Amino acid sequence: MPKTVLASHIVGERGVNAFENYCNRHQPYIIWRETTKNDFGIDGEVELTEITADGKTRPISQTLKVQIKSTQSEKSYMQDETAESFSFYPKDADLDYWRSYRQYGYEVLLVVFDGRKGEEKLYCKLVSGVDEVRLQKMGKRKTNPIVFSKTDNLLVAGQHGFDVKYRASFAGRVDYTATEVLDTNMWPFRSVPRQLFTYPTHYKSKKDIFKNITNDEAPYFIINNSLVYTFVPLEKTFQKFFVHVISEGQKRTEYLFRDVVDSAVLRSHYVELLNEYIRDFMGKRGLKFQRDFRRYYFTLREPEVERMASYTSRVHRKKIEKTVVKYYEYAADKFYRHAAVSLQPLFVEDRVLLVVSPKYLFTLDRTTPLPGDKITRYTNYLNARVWNDGVLSQLHFWHDFLARSGSEITIFDGTAVNQASITLGNAVNFDVPFGIPLEGEKMSLRQKGRPAATPRPQLTLPGLFD
């Protein structure tokens, strides 16, 4: 039997679109964040904004959960209807779901979309504690519905009373009664070269140099404006490279690390040189650099259609396998999805960190990327379904895989050749005097018994390396 699109799905989409349009046209603008598509529960949240003195729109971190019920049938959500009102009879599952949010400080706005007979009307009402208690105590929900007024609860696109009407019920996004650890996607370099050397050369590019020199005879280096940059002195360690590449009679220039920190130009060359080490290290871990999208991705050999990588899980500390490359067929598209990562060294004051951004790469044949619009569409689809815990798990995977389950990633071990080693530690994190409440099944239990109201403290975030 061929698949069909249910009428309930179509009217449900109409309801969400109508509410999104209302938020978009409201002044000040209301931010609407739709949740992952599903057939139950909260459909999204709204966040209020305000207009600043310079005319810009600024979010104010006040949120309200939204559940949208859409109907185009006479026998649906709108019962006991009169010219002035109608009733909504919630199910036990609705009550339980709303209660779970209200227990942790989130009010729920129930929106009913009337799509009957070509209508496009929205009605909204807060699910109050009084309504909920009455419904549960009576045990006969038919006698205790949630009653909507067709005038007081009507939402009209272009009318701007939403924030005034519901502002008192919005929950602050930031919880100032709790403290948390703020995790980042920055890995600090524990050891890096403390000197940078430059040598004049008559060559213009690496391609010309490697016509006469093999990889084994060359150090890690970059070339810019007829200058070779390297972390090691060449005269003894790379004698053949020095003789053939460096201009005769010219002396090297040596920069200490503090010189690099003080110069934007030297910092740029230092980072570019670090990337040479990183690219070689990632290649030894089985990842290739994709220049167009500037990310490293897991490769796959023919005729394989899947690749796994082992790592130690973040929560249970068990050795597990993760699929890092897999073949997919989606409608007319056939492609490989590769786990990928962007790595960018960055100076923060006098320290060097690696900014780590988990990515994906989609290829036609294990190497050739899909067109950019398709990559964007599939990437957005995946990213919309990854929350904070998922991002943290992705970052953990990359560190654990590259460190081979150790606490430190050794990009280059220079001890055996009397050179500086390059190593990375665990991600930077620090305590902050606020928290962001978790949602759904992962709501934090720490909020139980918290004080009813606590004034906001003056926040001073710690330095990254205090």
Can you summarize the main beta sheet? 9 strands, antiparallel
Uncertain residue ranges: 439-466
Number of helices: 11
* Mean pLDDT figure: 85
What is the number of E strands? 24
Radius of gyration computed on alpha carbons: 29 Å
Domain DUF4365: 14-129
Organism: Hymenobacter qilianensis
Protein name: DUF4365 domain-containing protein
Keywords: Plasmid
Describe the 3D structure.
The strands form 5 sheets. Strands 11, 16, 17, 18, 19, 20, 21, 22 and 23 form a 9-stranded antiparallel beta sheet that branches. The longest helix is centred in the middle third of the chain and has 21 residues. The protein has 466 residues and is α+β, with helices and mostly antiparallel strands. Strand 13 and strand 14 form a beta hairpin. The C terminus is likely disordered. The protein has 2 domains: 167 residues, Trna Endonuclease, Chain: A, domain 1 (3-Layer(aba) Sandwich); 238 residues, no CATH class. Helices cover 24% and strands 32% of the residues.
Can I get a quick summary?
The chain has 466 residues and is α+β, with helices and mostly antiparallel strands.
Supply database-style keywords:
single chain, alpha+beta, Trna Endonuclease, Chain: A, domain 1, 2 domains, nine-stranded antiparallel beta sheet, seven-stranded mixed beta sheet, elongated, disordered C terminus
Write the topology of this structure:
Elements: H1 7-25, E1 31-34, E2 44-51, E3 57-71, E4 85-88, H2 92-102, E5 108-114, E6 121-126, H3 129-138, E7 146-149, E8 154-155, H4 162-166, E9 171-172, E10 180-183, E11 186-191, E12 195-200, H5 206-209, E13 221-224, E14 227-230, H6 234-237, H7 239-245, E15 253-256, H8 257-261, H9 264-284, E16 287-290, E17 295-298, E18 306-312, E19 319-330, E20 333-348, E21 351-363, H10 372-383, H11 388-403, E22 409-412, E23 422-424, E24 429-432
Parallel strand pairs: 3-5
Antiparallel strand pairs: 1-2, 2-3, 3-9, 4-7, 5-6, 6-8, 10-24, 11-21, 11-23, 12-14, 12-15, 13-14, 16-17, 17-20, 18-19, 19-20, 20-21, 22-23
